[in-house]
Amino acid sequence: MLTTTLYVTIEPCLMCASALRQIGIQRVVFGAGNERFGGNGTVLPIHSRKYQRYAAKH
Ligand SMILES: [Zn+2]
């Protein structure tokens, strides 16, 4: 998973961002922000170190 990049049209929501993090997706490229539920920066930056303690341990 270290080299996997996910391309999507809309920014993943909070649940998806968390799931992507837990399975180890390192990079997500999205076409547009999700103003209501965006989990990769628009609402909450789930990918940032601030939220690291909520991630699953591997
Ligand atoms: Zn989602």
UniProtKB/TrEMBL annotation:
Q: What InterPro entries does its record include? A: CMP_dCMP_dom, Cytidine_deaminase-like, MafB19-deam
Domain annotation CMP/dCMP-type deaminase: ranges: 1-51
Thylakoid found in the keyword field: no
Please indicate if the UniProt record lists Nuclease as a keyword.
no
> Which chain regions cross the lipid bilayer?
none
Record GO cellular component, one term: nucleus
Gene3D superfamilies xref list? Cytidine Deaminase, domain 2
Q: Name one GO molecular function term.
A: tRNA-specific adenosine-34 deaminase activity
Q: Kindly state a single biological-process term from the GO annotations of this entry.
A: tRNA wobble adenosine to inosine editing
What are the record keywords, sorted?
Answer: Hydrolase
- Its domain of life reads Eukaryota
Q: Which PANTHER family match?
A: CYTOSINE DEAMINASE FAMILY MEMBER, TRNA-SPECIFIC ADENOSINE DEAMINASE 2
Q: Any idea what this protein is called?
A: CMP/dCMP-type deaminase domain-containing protein
- Organism of provenance: Malassezia globosa (strain ATCC MYA-4612 / CBS 7966)
- Top-down, what is the taxonomic lineage of the species of origin? Eukaryota, Fungi, Dikarya, Basidiomycota, Ustilaginomycotina
